Amino acid sequence: REDNRTIAGISIVPGLFNINETMTFGIPLVLNPILDIPFILAPVVTVIIGYILVSSGFCPKIVLEVPWTMPPVLFGFVATGGKPMGAIAQLIVLAVSVLVYIPFLIAYEKFQAKQAAE
Fold this sequence. Notes:
Elements: H1 2-16, H2 21-26, H3 36-55, H4 72-79, H5 84-117
Helix pairs in contact: 3-5, 4-5
């Protein structure tokens, strides 16, 4: 839908710096029964994956405190002391988050289309 694409487009630049209020309140994600599931599920899944990546030795442990507004892949690189596996681990969890959200976003678009038709 055009309104969702507009909000997504507006949210890209702030989202690169972990400022997601535009998306959170623009779609809205808050109190949305369809999007509440991935909103809760994606962080849980990514924490589990992150734990597995670090405990298996794939990704080094975090050694630096990095400002929360640093872009995601750069964040992993810097936080692990300049180790590229930190960035790769963030790419992995980012991809998993996208995969968690996709079916719910499709369902939400169908729900919105059905509501608009009524």
